[in-house]
Known about the structure:
There is one protein chain. By secondary structure, the chain is an alpha/beta fold. It folds into two domains: 31-100, CATH 3.30.1330.30; 108-272, Alpha/beta knot. The protein has ten helices and ten strands. The protein has helices spanning 7-27, 35-43, 60-71, 81-87, 108-118, 133-145, 163-168, 184-192, 230-235, 253-272, and strands spanning 31-33, 48-54, 75-79, 96-100, 123-127, 150-154, 178-181, 197-207, 217-221, 238-241. It has a six-stranded parallel sheet with strand order 7-6-5-9-8-10, sandwiched between helices. It has a four-stranded mixed sheet with strand order 1-4-2-3. Helix 3 links the parallel strand 2 (48-54) and strand 3 (75-79). Helix 2 (35-43) packs parallel to helix 3 (60-71) and helix 6 (133-145) packs parallel to helix 10. It is elongated and about 60 Å long. Mean pLDDT is 86; it is low at 1-27.
Amino acid sequence: xxxxxxxxxxxxxxxxxxxxxxxxxxxxxxxxxxxxxxxxxxxxxxxxxxxxxxxxxxxxxxxxxxxxxxxxxxxxxxxxxxxxxxxxxxxxxxxxxxxxxxxxxxxxxxxxxxxxxxxxxxxxxxxxxxxxxxxxxxxxxxxxxxxxxxxxxxxxxxxxxxxxxxxxxxxxxxxxxxxxxxxxxxxxxxxxxxxxxxxxxxxxxxxxxxxxxxxxxxxxxxxxxxxxxxxxxxxxxxxxxxxxxxxxxxxxxxxxxxxxxxxxxxxxxxxxxx
Length: 274
């Protein structure tokens, strides 16, 4: 005869499972894994508190990590593959996992100061409720490569700076300022007073090649499913579309961000005459 659980007991087990899941997610914050991301964490000057290395692994990149950990007097543990699998968030630890101090957010004003110090027009990414950590990481990586001065994300209904984001950014998270704001629409209004104008990615907009995307600009990218929210879209100065010829009428958020960002770069280079 099959065992039966009383509804109350089943509910208790369900709640316990939810509690464990929340605890596990909390404990994964500050985890960096993979050889290049861990090396970049050291090189960027971030505080690495503890390093777990696969016992017996002697290849070059791992030895570089071990030397850095010893030089900086980090706690260094040689562990089994099973232990690394337990610590891993992404499943791609490559023989090394590090625990670092929580990723620090900056103020939006810090991004503007960076632009001023370089004598450049501010170039910011504003992400409206991006939920996929791989998308956020990829966008941070793109922002770094195009010379943007920072990425702005909302505090609510959006992914933050997690281990998966760090890995997806391929180390760019250590060099690209990220700010977290309570209200994205209000932030746009405040930045307009600093001379920025805003372009919003939406397939109903005007083709990007037909718009002037130079100057101090904020590129707004929307949620993976619903796009840019109505309130944020209303604050933008221009609605810009990427030309698409296929049967699918949308692009992945990080791909759309990359396409539009490099059009902005192209126009800036063309305007400067370089």
